[in-house]
Design a protein that fits this description.
single chain, alpha/beta, TIM Barrel, 3-stranded antiparallel β-sheet, 15% strand
Length: 313
Amino acid sequence: MNNRITKLFNIQYPIIQAGMVWNSGWRLASASSNAGILGLIGAGSMYPEVLREHIQKCKKATTNPFGVNVPMLYPNIEKIMDIIVEEGIKIVFTSAGNPKTWTNWLKEKNITVVHVVSSVKFALKAQDAGVDAIVAEGFEAGGHNGRDETTTLTLIPMVKEQIEIPLIAAGGIATGKAMLATMVLGADGVQIGSRFVASEESSAHQAFKQTVVDVKEGDTQLTLKELAPVRLIKNKFYNELQELYSSGATVEELKELLGRARAKRGMFEGDIDHGELEIGQVAGLIHDIKPVANIVKAIIAEFEEAKQQILSL
């Protein structure tokens, strides 16, 4: 394949492996890049020096391009950005913040910048800030999400109508058919998260990976809008959260229940009952844990097959 996304990142296929907290370490990023897509290290779950270690290990594990995803709401953001520059990273995906804050600074250092949005309004702001591409993420996505609950099916064409820079679709994409569908709607490529959680190279705990495989339709829910909207698997922690809501909980009570490191506890340490288990709705289509290379191969094969099926309609 050869289009605006493959040219922008110098990759074989227009697919980005999402930089997810507690899932996207150097093993996943390097395996993704070696499979011909863009691997991303998820800096959101890493202290600065841990991020440096992952970048250095990723460099040794692949000669292909890879990048770093940086949620801008996390502390130590200045140190994280300094390490990215010091280590020679040339691709940065930013999210959860104002793209104007870091875009010019990064681009002055010849870094390609992509920003993640969940609405047309913020897509336009990101384009005005000078980013090189946009990830438009629909309501179906796992992890932190937009408050407007706009689905990928409607978000992608609405954003495409308004912007000129390359557009990457995200949210509810785990198959070649979904990849083709979003590209028909106007996306130049796709970002995939949940499918790569259930990979052998993901840094997630094996118990969390198996829980993702076991998820059925309706087993996830977007919640905690008062703090930062997040899609979670329904478990004991989720049920406790709902009990708080039914009693008219305040924001402070929600914060107290959430506590600290709840996501690490669930996804990285494997506390399936009391951890925060972030995954997308598309988990209902994920039925196995396998190597990244096999996942990418299957997605591309299905994409090509679906193209041929459309031609016969």
